[in-house]
Amino acid sequence: SSMCGLTFVPGTWVEGMQLSKGTGSVVNGFESIAGQINVELRKPDEGDRMYLNLYANEGSRIEANANFRAELNDQWSTALLLHGKTNPIKNDRNNDGFMDNPLADHFIAMNRWKYMGNNGLRMQFGINGTYIRSHGGQLDSERGEPSDQVWGMDLNIDRLEGWLKIGSVNEMLPWRSWAIQASAARHHQDSYFGIRGYDATQNSLYVNLMHQTIIANTNHQVLMGASWQYDDYSESFDDVNYDRIESVPGAFFEYTYGGHEKVSLVAGLRGDYHNQYGFFATPRLHVRYGFSDQLVGRVSLGRGQRTANILAENNGLMASSRQFFIEGDGSDKPYGLNPEVAWNTGANLVYTFQINQQPGSLSFDFYHTSFQNQIVVDLDDSPQAVHFYNLEGSSYSNSFQFQVDYELLPRFDVRTAYRWYDVKTTYREELLEKPLISRHRLFLNLAYETESDWIFDYTINWQGRKRIPGTKSNPVEYQLDAYSPDFVVMNAQITKRWNAFEVYLGVENLLNYRQESPILASDDPFGEYFDSSLTWGPIFGRNTYLGLRYRI
């Protein structure tokens, strides 16, 4: 599901999001390298009892969302979350013969339960089902079987997952607790891109056992436990099977020190055994220091390791005529390649202030990631091929971010940020910028709410140029510049609220900026130069939308 991002999590389900920069806690596993996102969904025992949302835009997207919750008694509560979306109309604003957005039908449903016992026992469990049918390609293409006459794409996903969390807090000794987390999922995908087929199934099981206690006093807390991750993958691409099973049992120990007024520390270590990679250790350290009530600094250091699912994570490259070359060593390791291993170090500084009784904050972030091994996705070797191979040389990422948040006037908030990326990888023997990533980005958001419940929101995003993989060996008409231009995208929204009812009207990409000719060789989709994976900017252009909300 990594290729879908937050598509599987409808926005109306989200109550909050917490971002952990750098490597995360060892309690959550060994894979985190550059951060973790915790998506907090609407709870069965809090918030609106009913929330309805309707949305439509000029790209033909129509969406409906409904959230319901009920408290059955003092201990049990439940919630039902529903999401449906359809894109039924073909659009081709740039007249290249291809749809700007795929046709799509989505239905996602979740039922979750929560139990709060009188004896310290806590429990949550739920089930989630996802149904996605998407179709893109040339305007004359239709859903169904691949055709060598008209280029089309079908992406069909069925996913079912369930989870269980059980925990108990000792009411006499509240610092002592235990918990069990378990989840299972089945993900099935049928898809084709032109005349290439990609089918995949993943069955997963995850179990995490945890116990928390103290050493001597509550200044010294420890969290220890064991986990098991099991994944059964079955993939088929261009009639070649890539099947594997990954089984990773592990154990962890995390120590937290909080006995000092200014200093707190979290140090963790876990050991895991991968059935194909063997044993590996994951150390992590997080330190927080309060210079004053207004100035706080944090540093982190840690190791992360993951298996690169190179086919699922690079579905977009299948929408091209590139040949796939996996340069593994012929072993039983996934695709014959080594795991990705990286170290991440970082620092964060936050300063809070007040000017004219209005609050604000300044924050500075710097993070460095250095890869010991990485699966290189090489698009520069040839514009007619993509090569996957183990890193030979250096690969690193430096990121710096500066952000200012300030309430300029009562109910008028300003947020601005600048981000600098320095991301380079060795391709064969040449250290190059990672393609299609902006080195510089700027962001500005203005939000104002009147006393009469009018809400105005305006956002500007500027992205600097991006490196485009080399196409010089193509015929002149199918060559691209080495870098994309920089561009600006503006979004605006107005909302009016009447107690439980809201109406909102917005425009995305206000200046109607579009990437010209986003598909290389769109006039010859079955030729050797066709490539729709080199997209660096907006395609559809200006998009106006209207929505309604109702809550009780």
Structure in words:
It is a single chain. The chain is an all-beta fold and 552 residues long. The protein is built from no helices and 28 strands. The strands form three sheets. The protein has a 22-stranded antiparallel β-barrel. The radius of gyration is 25 Å and the shape is globular.
E-strand count: 28
Structural class: mainly beta
Termini, distance in Å?
Answer: 33 Å
- Write the element-wise H/E pattern from the N-terminal end onward: EEEEEEEEEEEEEEEEEEEEEEEEEEEE
Main sheet summary: 22 strands, antiparallel, barrel
Low-confidence stretches: none
Give me the Rg, rounded.
Answer: 25 Å
State the shape. Answer: globular
By DSSP (H or I, 4+ residues per run), the number of helices equals: 0
Please indicate the percent range of residues in DSSP E strands (runs of 2 or more). over 45%
Percent of residues in helices comes to under 10%
Mean pLDDT: 95
